[in-house]
Automatic annotation (TrEMBL):
Species assigned in the record: Euphydryas editha (Edith's checkerspot)
Organism taxonomic ancestry: Eukaryota, Metazoa, Ecdysozoa, Arthropoda, Hexapoda
PANTHER family in alphabetical order: TRANSMEMBRANE PROTEIN 208
Family: Belongs to the TMEM208 family.
Name this polypeptide is given: Transmembrane protein 208
Domain of life: Eukaryota
Amino acid sequence: MAPPQKGKAPTRGAKQIHTENNATVYFYRNISLAAALVYHSITIAFYFDEISTGTIILNFIVSILYVGCHQIMCKLSAPRYSENGHLVDPGLDLNMEGGIGEHLKDIVILTSITHILTLFSNYFWFMLLLLPIRAFWLVWVNFLGPWFFEKAPEETEQDEKKRKKMERKMKRYQQ
């Protein structure tokens, strides 16, 4: 095992990013397909009489999540080639820490786990509520929280001089 590197992480080439993006898209597509296949085959084999409208709706939502995440990952990682066939842009790096690809992969993992666990109890469908909670958390931490709790800008000498000048002007107009 290599020792951890100090400093800046080494850069990866466009071809390596493209190869890793393809592997990532195929891996998460296979996870979602496997979870759906296991769920539907067991449900049809053993619980066909117990399928309710709610279960059908929740499976439809899960299918939308699977397909949506897969399509977004494909679009984000779509490479661009030059006219002579050389790779110009590998697309967005799906394996970048803190990137949108990381969140899409988390959605696929949570959805797959939920899909499999619902074979044991329908109460596991409530795990899908973690998705909007996580989305709200990300919006709060990255946008709303800093905006609400931003410190007021401190007055500088120049601002104070401008304020005093405006006060003098206001006094002149009032007289």
